[in-house]
């Protein structure tokens, strides 16, 4: 059996374990919370053998094959570094870190330790994304020119909740805006220029963020994220011969269709037996069993590029996290001036 551990036992940890139970030869072995009683309750619920009352204790568990980091955004760096220092493979929730500096350190340590590290961007491994890439590669919609993608939900305005808490890395961009940004980079690579604006709420996090990214070959991505409005949460990829539609909610288990300029269309539905996390879990396990330190589908370089782009968006949209950021006043001014000229 492949033994998984989890650090952080919030809502997403429950979703992860529900799918973990559907992966062959995988089991939850150890869980860690800052509250021992919470760890014990979680262990009883999912039959984990080792509950720990601190994050640090889990690294003493020698039977672990990998750890899933499910803490709030601001804990990803510290928790991942701790595991990597003990040569424990890491699947870390997105965003991998709070900024590119953190991600660079995480990747460097993983490579030095020759220990697996992957950002848990579950969307990358879904059948929908696989089908989209196949359709694009087939040339059925011609050269891809434009992407329109959004992700928004109306969260309860509670300053104590994670999504509105600046100290925990809250806000729309890092929580859900990362998904449309990820898709644009998957399709087009690194952007040449960025336009971004955000609505900053009373808790100093971005409640809405709008982005226009321009890529090589005059390709464009128009992206939007929100934590105060319910958006369609769909993605449309426009090519010269037609378009591909990833149906709502596009970042999770959904369906795909295309429609050509001549009226020809087709829809692809998939048979699902999980919530969607099983695919990334299987990818991580396959990589670790195969002695690989990263996934070809969600590589270290891709996560670094993604975080650098998110940093650039934040700099232009004035989205800051004082407890994590190390942006200098000169860097902020230079980035803002550079973006305004592109």
Describe what this molecule looks like in 3D.
Helix content is 34%, strand content 24%. With 342 residues, the chain is an alpha/beta fold. It is globular, with a radius of gyration of 20 Å. Helix 3 (76-85) runs parallel beside helix 4 and helix 4 (100-113) runs antiparallel to helix 8. The mean pLDDT is 96. It has 2 domains: 2-123 and 279-303, 3-Layer(aba) Sandwich (Rossmann fold); 127-278, Dihydrodipicolinate Reductase, domain 2, CATH 3.30.360.10. The strands form 2 sheets. The chain has an 8-stranded mixed beta sheet with strand order 8-9-10-7-11-12-13-14, covered by helices on one side. A 6-stranded parallel beta sheet has the order 3-2-1-4-5-6, with helices on both faces.
The proportion of residues in beta strands is 15-25%
Please work out how many helical segments DSSP would assign.
9
Order of strands in the sheet with the most strands?
8-9-10-7-11-12-13-14
Unreliable stretches (pLDDT < 50, length at least 5) are none
- Computed structural class: alpha/beta
Report helical residue fraction. Answer: 25-40%
H/E series, N to C? EHEHEEHEHEHEHEEEEEEEHHH
CATH class of the largest domain: Alpha Beta
Task: Report the count of strand segments.
Answer: 14
The third-level CATH topology of the largest domain is: Dihydrodipicolinate Reductase, domain 2
Distance from first to last alpha carbon: 53 Å
- Tell me which CATH architecture of the largest domain applies here: 2-Layer Sandwich
User: What would CATH call the homologous superfamily of the largest domain?
Assistant: Dihydrodipicolinate Reductase, domain 2
Mean pLDDT over the residues: 96
Radius of gyration: 20 Å
The major sheet is characterized as: 8 strands, mixed
- The overall number of domains is 2
| 3D shape | globular
């Amino acid at each position: 059996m492949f033994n998984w551990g989890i650090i952080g036992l919030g809502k997403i940890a429950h979703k992860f374990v529900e799918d973990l139970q559907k992966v062959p030869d995988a089991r939850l072995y150890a869980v860690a919370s800052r509250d021992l009683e919470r760890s014990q309750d979680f262990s009883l619920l999912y039959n984990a053998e080792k509950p720990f009352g601190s994050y640090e204790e889990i690294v003493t568990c020698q039977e672990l094959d990998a750890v899933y980091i499910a803490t709030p955004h601001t804990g990803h760096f510290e928790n991942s570094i701790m595991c990597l220092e003990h040569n424990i493979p890491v699947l870390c929730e997105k965003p991998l870190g709070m900024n590119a500096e953190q991600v660079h350190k995480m990747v460097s340590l993983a490579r030095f330790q020759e220990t697996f590290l992957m950002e848990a961007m579950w969307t990358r491994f879904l059948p929908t994304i696989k089908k989209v890439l196949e359709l694009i590669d087939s040339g059925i919609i011609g050269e891809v020119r434009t992407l329109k993608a959004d992700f928004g939900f109306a969260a309860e305005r509670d300053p104590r909740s994670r999504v509105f808490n600046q100290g925990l890395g809250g806000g729309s961009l890092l929580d859900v805006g990362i998904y449309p940004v990820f898709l644009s980079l998957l399709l087009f690579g690194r952007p040449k220029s960025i336009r971004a604006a955000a609505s900053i709420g009373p808790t100093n996090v971005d409640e809405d963020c709008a982005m226009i990214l321009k890529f090589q070959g005059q390709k464009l991505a128009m992206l939007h994220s929100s934590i105060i409005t319910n958006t369609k949460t769909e993605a449309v990829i426009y090519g010269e011969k037609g378009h591909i539609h990833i149906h709502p909610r596009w970042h999770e288990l959904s369906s795909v269709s295309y429609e050509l300029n001549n009226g020809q269309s087709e829809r692809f539905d998939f048979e699902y037996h999980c919530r969607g996390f099983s695919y990334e879990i299987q990818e991580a396990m396959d990589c670790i069993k195969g002695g690989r330190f990263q996934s070809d589908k969600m590589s270290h370089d891709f996560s670094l590029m993604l975080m650098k782009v998110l940093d650039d968006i934040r700099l232009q949209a004035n989205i800051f996290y004082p407890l994590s950021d190390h942006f200098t006043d000169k860097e902020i001014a230079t980035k803002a001036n550079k973006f305004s000229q592109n």
